[in-house]
Design goal:
heterodimer, A: 459 residues, 2 domains, 19 helices, 72% helix, elongated, B: alpha/beta, Rossmann fold, Alpha-Beta Plaits, 4-stranded antiparallel β-sheet, 14 strands
């Protein structure tokens, strides 16, 4: 049997057309990385306001009169008058925006609830914070913020939560000018903790908060804490999203498997039919080997080839993406459940995504193989295979929109296991088990038809 | 002498048409068996049934005692062959092709591949792609392929197709050697009688799916000798000889100044020849040789046997 598979393998790799197709796949893989690289350049740049910019911003705000425009004009005037926080990338810029929002809003747009004492205090806080901003010393600013939060009148738990980002930064000696990722993580933690605090207060007051909302908050918090604790800047989340360009590109490259699918359909479509059209089938079948073994060897060769190509695309994508973006191996795949974070290998996660993406490839290869064996026409097999690959998803979507529920039994509706697993199926309530079961049934039908057609037919 | 191929009341229908009708045939190891018949008589169909390419409706076929249906692998282990045209993988070299078949059969070494290539005279071209081969070379490669595993039964469907006269002669020698020295049963199908006459020990004639006759080549020729035979006279003066023979009541066909042919019939051909020769001698004709025109014999016999049935069914 191994020798038979080797024979089939040699047949495929003796043809020039195979190499042309492989070269095409390689071009796609490399091109994809390069295009990603080109499109990703120049993502974030800071901007420094000149006096002229500020003047035009102010005149724009005056004419637009959008809500809160007075406050913004005050901020720009402060920026110009004190010649500070002009760089959008600096911590001062954000701190100034925060100071105006937090301490000036209630002064500019006062409501009845705000007492004179409160006003005086806000004004004092504003002065203290802006003084720290003007000094350019972040530690002084953090102290001013912490002090302001502490005598804001919030209860001790909230004070603890709100001061957390400043305390964390100071404790770890982090400078916001370096744009440490921990800053935004700490700020997100503060935001989520406050959210959680509010949910608890609401629950105590008798409102209903759904468990899933609470759990989501809890999980997000657990993730952020885990990252701070283990010093994880970038990671891949459950939805496959990541801030790291290498891993982003690597994951996106999984879509290249469609190109591989076309190659597989071409080879599978020719694999039986070409033996008939060239007449070599007679020489193949007069050997002391049962027909069922010959057809099995052909199918197994196709499966091996598909696996090899899958591995090839995975490795080559990994390498080209690493060359384009620089591989960062310190990016784990993090998931949180019930507030417990599990760290997994990102390579494995990406591999899993590739495998899920390749389900359609295997299914369409089997289909082309069946047609090839049944009709002995490589053109029909390849045509139908590629058409199904390209148009199948469209057909199921149309059926779903027309409300034809039987569409869920079509093979195309079940091929995108990755999506179905994430809950985005074309038809409602389609589970992975259902999809996998349907796929298996289809595979059995394809193979059985192919085998029956091959072993019974007269040559 | 063992039984190599045995067909027992084999029939095959294509739809309503009966292409092979109740065929019984036995061939033996150590003989070259010719399978003779006009186009569409069922030769290729029979060969395809023998090697399991198509199924049959009635009867049994066994090769070296193994039933082709129930013991396919065992039966085929003893068979090598070419069915219809030698269609090999054109995108591979000759050697790569042979290696493909070597992997599918037991006990074929690289040494054996070289040996077979040598035998069919392809050594110099074996590393070239088959797409660059002529039909004759592909035929040789086909033969090489069929010999790889020392088969006891060699089935070749019109093997001389595309071969030049020298190639036909080489192949003939190879096949006769295989049969007579290595005790292989060689089954050759053809519609070229002259070729069969030189190559085969026995012939089976099939017409419209029916096996008309199985005889040795000699018998077949002898059988027709009694009824009609052509004799060629090689003389010093053909015109003179023609005159003399005409007086004896023979119709002469003079081809040049030295050669003429007569047709003799009846039971006492030898008597007549003796008498004619004496007359020619007496008339002063210089007689070099008299010989039967053998090459025509089998064909005559064949046409006679299949007369009225050579229309493609």
């Amino acid at each position: 049997m191994l020798k038979l598979i080797k024979n089939e393998w040699i047949k495929v790799f003796s043809k020039i057309s195979t190499y042309v197709l492989l070269a095409l796949v390689l071009i796609f893989v490399i091109g994809f990385s390069v295009l990603m690289k080109i499109s990703m350049n120049g993502s974030y740049e800071s901007y420094v306001y000149t006096d002229a910019d500020i003047a035009s911003e102010i005149s724009y705000l005056e004419s637009s009169r959008e809500p809160g425009y007075e406050l913004n004009i005050m901020r720009y005037e402060f920026m110009r008058d004190h010649d500070t926080a002009r760089d959008t990338g600096s911590w001062e810029y954000n701190a100034l925006a925060d100071a105006f929002q937090t301490y000036q809003y209630d002064l500019v747009y006062p409501t009845d609830q705000i007492t004179e004492d409160k006003k005086a205090q806000l004004s004092a806080d504003f002065d203290a914070v802006t003084a720290a901003i003007l000094s350019g010393d972040w530690n002084a600013y953090a102290d001013a913020k912490i002090a302001a939060i502490e005598h804001s009148g919030a209860d001790s738990e909230l004070v603890e939560i709100r001061t957390f980002p400043y305390r964390y930064m100071k404790e770890h000696g982090l400078n916001p000018d370096d744009k440490p990722w921990q800053q935004s993580a700490a700020e997100q933690i503060a935001g989520l903790e406050e959210e959680k605090y509010n949910y608890q207060k609401q629950q105590e007051a008798g409102s209903y908060i759904s468990d899933s909302v609470l759990e989501e908050t809890e999980n997000s918090l657990a993730l952020l804490n885990y990252r701070l604790e283990h010093n994880v800047e970038n990671y891949i989340d459950e939805k496959g999203e990541t801030g790291n360009m290498f891993w982003y590109a690597f994951l996106q490259s999984a879509s290249l498997l469609t190109v591989v699918s076309v190659l597989m359909i071409v080879i599978a479509g020719g694999c039986v039919a070409n033996e008939f059209s060239s007449g070599t089938i007679k020489f193949l079948l007069i050997n002391p080997v049962k027909r069922s073994k010959i057809i099995w060897s052909k199918f197994l060769m196709l499966m091996l080839l598909a696996i090899a190509l899958l591995a090839g695309v995975y490795v080559v994508s990994g390498i080209t993406d690493a060359i384009c973006f620089g591989a960062d191996f310190n990016v784990p795949y993090l998931t949180a459940e019930n507030g417990v974070v599990t760290a997994g290998s990102s390579f494995l996660y990406v591999l899993q995504q590739y495998l899920l993406n390749s389900v359609g490839m295997f299914a369409m290869t089997a289909m082309a193989f069946m047609i090839s064996s049944l009709l002995r026409s490589s053109a029909v097999a390849i045509g139908v295979g590629v058409a199904a690959l390209m148009g199948g998803t469209m057909v199921t979507q149309i059926l779903a929109e027309l409300g034809c529920d039987w569409g869920r039994y079509l093979i195309f509706a079940n091929m995108n296991l990755g999506q179905i697993r994430s809950g985005y199926s074309t038809f409602p309530n389609q589970s992975v088990t259902f999809a996998a079961g349907t796929l298996i049934v289809y595979m059995i039908i394809f193979l059985w038809t192919a085998f029956d057609g091959f072993t019974r037919r007269e040559v | 002498m063992e039984t190599a191929i045995k067909l027992n009341h084999v029939s095959k229908n294509f739809g309503k048409r009966r292409v092979v009708d109740d065929l019984c045939l036995e061939t033996h190891t150590g003989e070259v068996f010719g399978f003779l018949g006009p186009n569409g008589a069922g030769k290729t169909t029979t060969i395809k049934m023998l090697v399991g390419l198509i199924d049959f409706d009635e009867g049994e076929i066994s090769i070296c005692g193994a039933d082709v249906r129930t013991q396919f692998e065992k039966a085929m282990a003893n068979v090598g062959g070419i069915v219809e045209n030698p269609e090999l993988y054109r995108y591979m070299t000759g050697l790569q092709n042979l290696r493909q078949y070597a992997r599918m059969r037991k006990g074929v070494t690289e040494e054996r591949i070289r040996e077979v290539v040598e035998l069919v005279g392809l050594t110099n071209r074996i590393h070239e792609k088959v797409s660059k081969y002529s039909l004759g070379m592909r035929q040789r490669l086909g033969v090489a392929q069929s010999l790889l595993h020392h088969p006891k039964v060699l089935i070749l469907d019109e093997p001389t197709n595309g071969l030049d006269p020298a190639g036909i002669r080489e192949l003939r020698d190879i096949l006769r050697n295989l049969a007579h020295r290595e005790n292989v049963c060689v089954m050759v199908s053809s519609h070229l009688m002259s070729e069969m006459q030189l190559m085969c020990d026995r012939v089976g004639i099939i017409v419209k799916g029916k096996l008309l006759q199985v005889t040795s080549v000699e018998e077949l020729i002898h059988q027709t000798k009694k009824n009609a035979g052509r004799y060629r006279y090689f003389v010093d003066n053909a015109a003179h000889a023609a005159q003399v023979l005409s007086r004896e009541g023979q119709q002469c066909l003079q081809s040049d100044e030295h050669t003429l042919e007569i047709t003799l019939s009846g039971e006492d051909v030898m008597e007549v020849l003796l008498k004619l020769n004496r007359t020619l001698f007496d008339a002063g004709v210089g007689l070099y040789t008299v010989s039967p025109v053998e090459t025509q014999r089998l064909e005559d016999a064949f046409i006679e046997l299949t007369k009225g049935e050579t229309q493609i069914a």
